[in-house]
Write a sequence for this structure.
């Protein structure tokens, strides 16, 4: 069926006294896509309000998904341009606001397209996979180095191990594990590449070259969910997640997606690093997750001349974090071990061969192996296990 064009346009946009209708303005807004999500802002719940004055001036309220959105200028000018084109509009004012957490969650769920969500296998009550989130307060404390070494050591013992590089902005796991393969897609499953017997998936595998990832909350949540649910992991004994430093969106997403994941805190002996690590760890109280222990990295460097340990980054950070977290959580949080500064650990990371494999008896290699043994041997108690119940005050 065909309409004569002028008739159609008139019907859609102009009332008798030629003041634009709200329907016409909303129809114009539906032509504006969010520059990052590439979907109409009207579908994303981003249109807060539309007010039309008698003189044809239109005020549009627009929700940004996050404050400080880098796309605010683009959104403002695209909205103005689209509404300006509606017959009868004499001026457009765009006012920006920011979505609440609740609105962001709704957006994330609408981005899933109402499609039944694939289940995260590790979150199922019967799952036997131990999930460890490696967290730290600051970057550069050795979180990724610890993650890949624990993974490689456990895999060398014959455990089935997977690593999710969830450090969206600072992904480094594939390089440190020497993973060169790319994920392949089979039907709607993603097959992860592996190296040293460890299955690895990283956001870096889905972005061209070394380009930075600038994603917002709902997209991060979606990416993580895909890593957990759409990647074919098989039956894993252990899954390690290398989290971004701090207490951001990803930590919350992990807690929602795998409530039974346990947190492993990495810190240096330094007071300042210990304090921020403690803050990062105490997010577990809010998310009801268990903290499995604290690893103190860079704890001393063997003196090249006398072999005595030199405390480059001070002492006691690991103990301080463990004690602080024991107090905040009310559950015993142990120090799982200390890893000395060891050039071979850095070299192993640069060369893609973790020190636990290239030099297992070096001071760092053996410290890491004994922590890995401790984590691999742990019996899963009821504490920290998801019982399939969601307390209503969870978040
Ligand atoms: N115990 C250690 N001895 C020597 N170098 C280390 C040690 N731990 C980490 N490094 C090096 O320090 C740098 C930062 O470590 P990385 O694991 O990337 O930290 P994070 O993931 O916390 O940002 C890397 O170059 C790494 O090789
Ligand atoms: Mg890192």
């Amino acid at each position: 069926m065909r309409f004569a064009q002028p008739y159609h346009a008139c019907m859609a946009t102009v009332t008798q006294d030629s003041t634009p209708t709200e329907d016409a303005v909303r129809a114009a807004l539906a032509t504006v896509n969010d520059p990052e999500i590439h979907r109409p802002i009207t579908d994303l719940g981003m249109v807060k309000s539309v007010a039309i004055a008698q003189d044809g001036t239109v005020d549009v309220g627009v929700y940004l998904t996050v404050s400080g959105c880098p796309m605010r200028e683009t959104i403002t000018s695209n909205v103005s341009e689209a509404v300006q084109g509606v017959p009868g509009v004499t001026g457009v004012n765009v006012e920006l606001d920011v979505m609440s957490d609740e609105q962001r969650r709704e957006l994330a769920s609408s981005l899933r397209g109402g499609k039944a969500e694939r289940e995260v296998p590790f979150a199922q009550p019967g799952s036997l996979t131990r999930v460890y989130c490696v967290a730290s307060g600051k970057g550069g404390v050795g979180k990724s180095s610890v993650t890949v070494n624990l993974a490689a050591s456990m895999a060398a013992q014959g455990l089935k191990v997977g690593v999710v590089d969830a450090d969206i902005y600072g992904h480094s796991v594939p390089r440190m594990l020497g993973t060169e393969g790319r994920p392949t897609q089979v039907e709607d499953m993603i097959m992860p590449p592996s190296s040293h017997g460890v299955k690895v998936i990283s956001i870096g595998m889905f972005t061209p070259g070394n380009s930075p990832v600038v994603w917002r909350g709902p997209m991060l949540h979606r990416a993580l969910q895909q890593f957990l649910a759409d990647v074919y992991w098989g039956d894993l004994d252990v899954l390690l997640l290398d989290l971004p430093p701090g207490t951001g969106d990803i930590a919350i997403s992990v807690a929602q997606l795998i409530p039974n994941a346990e947190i492993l805190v990495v810190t240096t002996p330094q007071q300042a690093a210990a304090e921020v690590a403690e803050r990062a760890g105490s997010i577990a109280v809010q998310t009801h997750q268990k903290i499995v222990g604290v690893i103190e990295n860079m704890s001393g460097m063997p003196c090249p001349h006398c072999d005595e340990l030199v405390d480059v980054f001070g002492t006691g950070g690991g103990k301080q974090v463990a004690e602080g977290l024991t107090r905040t959580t009310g559950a015993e949080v142990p120090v799982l071990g200390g890893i000395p500064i060891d050039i071979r650990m850095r070299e192993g990371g640069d060369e893609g061969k973790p020190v636990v494999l290239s030099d297992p008896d070096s001071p760092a290699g053996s410290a890491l192996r004994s922590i890995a043994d401790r984590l691999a041997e742990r019996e899963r108690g009821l504490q920290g296990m998801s019982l399939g119940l969601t307390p209503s005050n969870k978040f």
The pocket of adenosine-5'-diphosphate (ligand 1) is lined by residues 136, 139-145, 172, 297-298, 339, 341-342, 345-346, 349, 364 (CB under 6 Å). Residues 36 and 348 are 37 Å apart (CA to CA). Confidence is low (pLDDT under 50) at residues 1-16, 381-395. The domain at 17-99 is CATH 3.30.300.130 (GMP Synthetase; Chain A, domain 3).
